[in-house]
Amino acid sequence: MSVGLSESQNYIWSDDDCLGEGTFGKVFRGIQKRSGDKVAIKIFKHVNHQVSQETKLLQSLQHKHIIRFFATEFELSTNKMVMILELCNGGSLMSYLNEPENVCGLPDEEFLLVFNHLSAGLEFLKRHDVIHRDVKPDNIMRHVLDDGQTVYKLADFGTARELPEGQNFTSLHGTEPYLHPQLYRVCFFQGSNCTREFGANTDLWSIGVTLYQTATGNLPFLVMDRHVMLRIYHEMQENEGIVSAIQQKNSDEVVFQKKLPRNCRLSCGLKQLITPIIAGVFIQEKGKQWSFTQYYEQVVDLVSRKVINVFYVNKMRLMKVYIKSDETFNTFKYYVSAQSEVAEENQVFLYKANLIVNTFEDFSGVDESDCIFLFDRSNAEVESTIDVQLVFENLTNFPNKFMSSSESDDHRLAFVTCRDLCLCKNVMDYQSIVYKYFSNFIKDFNSYCKEETRDQRKMYDTLLEKSSQTKNRAQILKQLQNLNHSNDDSFLDRFEEISDNFLSETDKLFNDLRNIKADLVPNTSHDSYLKTVSKELTDMKQLRKKLYNARINKKLYDFEKIKIVHCVRTILETFTDKMDPNFDCFVNDIKNWHKNEFFAHVRTLSTLKKLLNRYRSDLKRFEDEIQARSDDNLKTISTLGLNKEKLFDIVEKYKTNNLDIKTLVEENLKLVEQMNELVVTLNSNLSTDL
C-alpha cells in the first residue's frame, strides 16, 4: 500500500481525509474497493462495551433519518476495529451552523427540515425504547441528494441504550451545554441532593438546546461560571417560558429572554410557533414536564401547517403565516395581527387582483409561490424595516488591518469579515424581497383597479340606461297628473336634481381615475449587483481555504490575502455605492406613491362604488314612487270622463316604455307584472267607454 492509505478487507481510505474526531476515535472518508461507493470509516481508539452496543443498536435501527450502518471490519495493518457507515456529504449540522452565512441561524425552510427530520428520527428511537443521550448538532449529519433536497440524520450512537417505558438510567453521558439540569448538577456538583436516576426526558432538554442553536446560531445558555448555571436552572423553574440566559461580560448579571433574538433568521410567524415548543421542553417541574409524545404532537402540528406568504406593504416586510387546513379566515387575520400589529378591522388584503376584507373562501388554493398583500387601511405611511444591524466600520478598516496582520490573526479576521459580509448579503436579500413583492403588489393592484373600474363603468352604463327609462316613465306620470289636474312637480324635479348631481360626480371620479399614476417601475439593476456579490462571496469562501493551505509559501500566501481584500472591497463598494442608494431612492418613491397615488386610487374607487350604489337605490326608490303615483292616477282617471283619445295615447306610450325597460328591470319582475295589469284594466275601461 502507498504511504497515507489504510484499508480493511473491503474498504480503503486516506489517513489525510479525516472528517472528524472525538473521544471515541476518528472518522475518515473512504470507498468500497469493488463498487467505489463512498462511505464513512469510524475507527475506534478502544473497543469496549459501548462500541459493541452501538454496533448492535445501529444494526437494528433502520430509518431514513438515522445514519445507516453497513458493516464492521478490521484495519489490516493494526487490526483495529472499524465501523462502516453511510457517508453524509454535507457534514454535520454543527459544521453547517459554523458557516459564516449561518451566524444568525438557519432560515425557515432549512430549520423546519432539521426540526422535522431530527424529531422523526428520535420518534423512531422512542418507539423502539431507545434513548440517544447525546443529541447535539455535532451528532446530526446533513446529506444533500442528487435532486438538491437535504436530509438530516441522527448519528453517533456510542452513548445510546435501550430504555423501556417507565425505566430510568444512572450512568452519566452527554455534552455539557446540552445536559439536562438534573444530569448537570450530578456531573459538576457532587454534593447536590439530586437523585442519580434519569429518565428519557433528558433527550428532550438536549433537543431544546439544539433547536435554539439551529434557530439562532448560538447556544441558549452562556455562562462563565458553572454556579451561574444553577441560578439559571432555578430561575427557569420559578419562571416558565424562558428560552435563553446570557451572563453579561465581567458581571454576575444574567439576562433572561422569553423570545428568540431579533436578528434570528426565522420568520416572525415561525418564531411565534417554535418558541413555546423550546420553552415547553425546558420545563423542569414534575407533573408539568413534557413527555416525548406531547413534544411530537407539537412537531406534527407545526410541520403539517400550510405556509402562506403575506407581504405587509406598510412595513415592506414579508411575513409567513403558518395555518392549519381547518382554520378560518378570522384565525388567519388573528395570526396576521400577531405578526404585524395591524388591528383585524383595519386589515385589507389583495390577492390576485381581488380585494379581500371580510372573507376568504379557500386557503388550499394559495400556492407557496403566491403572495397575499396586506395593507393597513388606517395608515397611509410606508417604511422600510430590517432586523439586521450592520457595522461597516470593521469592513471599511479590513483591507489595511488585514494586510498588516500576523498569520495567527489572518484566519480569524477573514472569518469575521466573511461573516459580516454575509450579514450584508442578508440586507441585500431583504432588498430583493422588497423589490420583488412591491413590484408584484403594484402589478396586482393595477389589475384590481382596471377590473374594478371596468366593473363600475359597466354598472354606470346600466344605471344611465335605467335612468333614461325612469325619466320616460316620469314624463308619462307627468301627463297622467295633468289629465288628473295634479301638478305636483317637486317629486320629478328632485329626481332630475339627483340624476344631474350623479352624472357630474361620476364624470369627475372617472376622470380622476384616468389621471392617477398607477405604475412604478423598480430599479432593475439590483439583481445583477446581487449576482456580483454572490460570486465574490463564493470566491471569498474558497480563498479562505486557499489561504490556510498556502501558509508554507510566503509569496502565495500574500497573493491570496490580496485577492481576499479585493473581494471585500468589491462587495462593500457594490453595496454602499450602488445597491443601498438605489434602494433608498426606491423606498422614497414607494412612500410618495403609496401616500398619494395608492390611497387616491383606493379612495376614488371606494367613493365611486358608494356613489353608484346610492344612485341605484335612488332609482329604485323613484321607480317605486312612480309606480305608486301611477297606480293612484290611473285609478282616478278610470273613474272620470276624460278625453279618451288623449288617454289612449298615454297608455300606448306607457306600453312601449314598459317593453323597453322590461329587460333592464328583470330583478323587479313583480313591478312589471303589476304595471301590465294596470294597462289591461285601463284598456278594458277605455274599450267600454269608447
From TrEMBL:
Keywords: ATP-binding, Coiled coil, Cytoplasm, Kinase, Nucleotide-binding, Serine/threonine-protein kinase, Transferase. Pfam families: Pkinase (PF00069), TBK1_ULD (PF18396). GO terms for cellular component: cytoplasm. SMART domains: S_TKc. ATP binds at K42. SUPFAM superfamilies: Protein kinase-like (PK-like). GO terms for biological process: activation of innate immune response; positive regulation of signal transduction; positive regulation of type I interferon production; response to stress. Residues 13-312 form the Protein kinase domain. InterPro entries: IKK, Kinase-like_dom_sf, Prot_kinase_dom, Protein_kinase_ATP_BS, TBK1_ULD. One of its GO terms (molecular function) is protein serine/threonine kinase activity. PANTHER family: FI05319P, IKB KINASE. This is Serine/threonine-protein kinase TBK1-like Protein.
